[in-house]
Input
Amino acid sequence: MRIISHGVDIVQCSRVEQLWKGHGEHFLNRVYTPAEQRYCLDTRVTVERLSGRFAAKEAVMKCLGTGWRGGIEWTDIETLSDPLGRPLCTLHGKTAELARSLGIEQVQVSISHAGEYAVATALGLGPAGSR
Output
């Protein structure tokens, strides 16, 4: 696979916590898929997990180069963990269509959080012969 694009984002965990506490379920439903909500809310480190997934979604949008326009939804980007804890990113809807149009077949993400910050990177991967 070949790297087609890259995105990175960092967020303050306190900012995500304020959004969550201030807007509750509306914020969760707008930004996170039901599976992401289950993963993030079923732990003692809820704010860190929410923040990491938030940063991952932003990093993917930067990787795609579009921002939140053209019908892209937060929930089009889903990041869940495999049994070993590695984040796996799945794209849905218009976001998946956009990725395909750019020659991106797979998005790899990495998420980390320490103290007040969460950071994520996203690599858009395509076949070795693309673009």
Observations:
- Strands lie at 2-12, 77-81, 87-91, 106-114, 117-126.
